[in-house]
Amino acid sequence: MGVMKRVQLVFKAKANKALDKMEDPRETLDYSYQRQLELLTKVRRGVADVATSRKRVELQMNQLQQQANKLDDQARKALGLGREDLARDALTRKSSAQSQLNDLQGQYAQLQAEEEKLTVASQRLQAKVDAFRTRKETIKATYTAAEAQTRINEAFSGISEEMGDVGMAIQRAEDKTAQMQARAGAIDELMASGALDDVGGRRDDIQAELDQLSANSDVESELRRLRGEIAANAPKQLEVGPNGDGGQGGNGEQAQSQAQSAPYAPPAPTQNPQQAAQAAGIPVSDLPSANDQPQDGEGP
Amino acid sequence: MIVRILGEGQFRVDDNATPGLNHLDTELETAVERGDEPAFKAALTGLLAQVRAQGSPLPPDTLEPSDLILPHQDSSMDEVRKLLTDEGLIPG
Questions:
Q1: Using CA atoms, how far apart are residues A203 and A197, in angstroms rounded to an integer?
Q2: Does B59 lie at the interface with A, CB-CB under 8 angstroms?
Q3: CA distance A292 to A231
Q4: Which of A110, A234, B53, B89 is most buried, judging by how many CB atoms fall within 10 Å of its CB?
Q5: What phi, psi does A298 have (nearest 5°)?
Q6: Do the Cβ atoms of B92 and A163 come within 8 Å?
Q7: Which stretches of chain A score pLDDT less than 50?
Q8: What pLDDT sits at residue A273?
């Protein structure tokens, strides 16, 4: 005997066993109908549970996608700022987020399929339960208890098989949902731990470093701007200055050494190299060291 | 003949299809006995495909019991083994 027949016999045996428990066949009808309604409630709850699980996975997928986009953006910025190490770090995290995302996509598809199957199962069961109710009333109205037996057995076997099938489908969906929930929980934990750096979660260290880098680069560009302004203004002042002849090489060197030593010469009449140079009639542009000297020890 | 695919519903299949189904069913049974997963998958997929192709779905409000019952598409061999025992997977 093949598998198909054996499975059918197992289902049939199950139905017969339930039938044998009933003393009054009419009682069977009502009892079975109650069980059917319970199962209908259960399968609908099953559909809702799977849908909830699916939505949770969907939410996580969105979060992971945002995270992957953000990390990609960070990698781009880091590279732009010449920090390949930071970019590498961001891309490593992105790849981890991406692989979680791929995993979730598979789970999502499974949950969606499970939800569809259960929805169809619940519709099929509903149709059979309605048919059973009609049959039940007819049997009760038309037949005596003895006569009813065969018809009751028929109706009962048909619905019992469906109930067994739907019951198994609910069980499968529950198992799958439980698995998914465990994995969804694991991903939530992973996000909370910062391994994937949840969007809007704890302070993001790559972002912190990028912010710092970009703040520094803002300071640098401000400095360049200010220096530019000063350099642009300098020649005008020279025109009105005394001995505005542009200076000579010898004088330049002299001014330069004077400029370098100026901070260390307390009685010097001027306090900074530019002023010193101007006083000496030397254009500031001839004093490279004065302008290029780092002011705060934080060179580029 | 009425064939149920678990998780899918019932199909009315012409009796002419029986030899083909029986052939695959024997392969399925042998595969389960031997624990041969690839053969099991192949036989099950073939059986389901034949029932779907040659059968016509029964209206959902029929209360007729099936003559044959097939495991669902994604069944593992282990599930089918359990299904074949009284203590198996059928709830209630």
A1: 8
A2: yes
A3: 12
A4: B89
A5: -105, 75
A6: yes
A7: 198-202, 241, 244-266, 268-270, 276-277, 284, 286-294, 297-300
A8: 52
d(CA A38, CA A214): 63
Res B86: pLDDT: 61
**Contact: B68, A169; criterion CB under 8 Å:** no
Q: Which residues of A touch B6 (CB under 8 A)?
A: 7, 165, 168-169
Residues 111-150 of A with CB under 8 A from B: 117, 120-121, 123-124, 127-128, 130-132, 135
Stated pTM of the model = 0.68
Quick one: what percent of chain B has pLDDT higher than 90? 73
Window 63-92 of B, Cβ < 8 Å to A = 63-72, 80, 83-86, 88-92
Could you give the 3-state DSSP secondary structure of residue B5?
strand
Joined together, the tokens standing for residue B79 give 């599930």
Instruction: Dump pLDDT digits (tens) for B32-62.
Output: 999 999 999 999 999 999 999 999 999 999 9
- H/E stretch holding B11: strand B9-13
**Hey, what's the torsion of the CAs at A91, A97, A103, A106, to 10 degrees?**
-100
Q: Is A282 left (phi over 0), alpha (psi -120 to 50) or beta?
A: beta
Q: Which of B79, B86, B63 is nearest to A161 (CA)?
A: B63
